[in-house]
Amino acid sequence: MNAPIHPVAGDQAAFASVLLECSPDCLKVLDNEGKVLFFNANGLCAMEIDSFDQVSGAFWPTLWPEPAVAETALRQALAGDLGSFKGFCPTRKGTPKWWDVMVAPVPNEYGPVERLIVISRDITAQQAADQRQAELAAELGHRINNTLTVVMAMASQTRRAATDMNSFYTAFAARLKAMAEATAAIVEGQWDGAYVRALAETQLKTFLTSADHRITLDGADVLVPTQHAQTLALIINELATNATKYGALSNKTGAVMLTWALADDGQTLRLEWREHGGPSVSAPTRTGSGSALLSNAAGANVDLRFEPSGVVCVITLDV
Q1: Is the pLDDT of residue 151 over 50?
Q2: Is the Cβ–Cβ distance between 267 and 223 less than 8 Å?
Q3: Angle between helices 196-208 and 226-245 (to 10 degrees)
Q4: Would you say residue 4 has pLDDT above 60?
């Protein structure tokens, strides 16, 4: 049974008790030695304490995993000031929780502080949200740095292969557009990555919406992690660009089949780009920025072959 809250009588004591019990926060009343005299019902529930007897008379700081922080707030309140802190304290049954705590002296017109009130507000959800926000901010910074690194490498490769400023601009703008569309697919996937079909459709939409259906996509929904999604988008964009200039999409009869599936281990994605019906192709005698992009694709293994029937490109990457 809770001890008396304050040396006041009659209706005042009853009213004070009702106020404490009505609070949704975890409220405690301590004596001037820091021992627990009172615990409101909502507080017992929040801390998963079955009976007040389990904490009655306990030195309040010892209820915390790190008593020193609570002791500091206790000393501040006993000196007549307001003590406060935020800290982690699991419930009696082990449920992890975070608390915003305030320790205040109960006014005593007759002399030194005799009672303290402790208000502990459950901020577990807020703490989780703050932690998630911090993680997102760190992840965003990491991804921005990675993206800028890719853009710089892409600019360098494109510049080396360009014959003039116009050819550089055309190629570089197309690759930036491919990256932007891949980012849109990643955002749609809640930043966890992008689905292969969504990535392919963003890069091949011109052909997929045409009446002659020059490109066929075939594969189950597979989520490509964010760190590989932009690379895959750039590879597909490069293959489509080359097919339009020199391969199966450069005439009226050629077509492309893009298929993909997970390997038996469930961790490796294999995609195959296969052209047919186009003009005869052969390996280029000069390495351009597109070839460099395919051969140096970060996080992906690219096997590009120039077969008699058309270009075949097999891409494998971890998912």
Answers
A1: yes
A2: no
A3: 20
A4: no
204 vs 241: CA distance, rounded Å: 10
Residue 188's contacts (CB-CB under 8 Å, 6 or more residues apart) are 194, 198
The per-residue pLDDT for 143 is 65
* Whole-Å CA distances, 285 to 237, 265, 291, 302: 21, 38, 11, 19
Phi and psi at 83, nearest 5°, equal -100, 140
Task: Give the highest mean pLDDT range of 12-21, 224-233, 295-304.
Answer: 224-233
In whole angstroms, what is the distance from residue 178 CA to residue 293 CA?
Answer: 13
Domains belonging to the chain, first-starting first, are: 10-122 (3.30.450.20), 127-318 (3.30.565.10)
Instruction: Render the burial of 32-46: b for 16+ CB within 10 Å, e for the rest.
Output: eebebbbbbebbbeb
Q: Rounded to whole angstroms, how far apart are CA atoms 289 and 155?
A: 9
For the chain, the farthest-separated pair of C-alpha atoms sits apart, in whole angstroms, at 102
pLDDT in the model for residue 60: 97
Q: What is the pLDDT of residue 2?
A: 54
| Close Cβ partners of 40 (under 8 Å, ≥ 6 residues apart) | 20, 21, 23, 26, 27, 28
Tallying the residues shown for the chain, one arrives at 319
Q: In this predicted structure, what is the pLDDT of residue 17? A: 67
What's at 143, amino acid-wise?
A: R
pLDDT digits (tens, 9 = 90+) for 28-67: 999 999 999 999 999 999 999 999 999 999 999 999 999 9
Structure tokens at 272: 């195959």
Single-letter residue type at 302: V
pTM over 0.85: no
Distance in angstroms (rounded) separating the CA atoms of residues 227 and 76: 50
Contact 196, 219 (CB under 8 A): yes
**Which of 5 and 164 is assigned the larger pLDDT?**
164
Distance between CA atoms of 32 and 111, rounded to whole angstroms?
Answer: 12
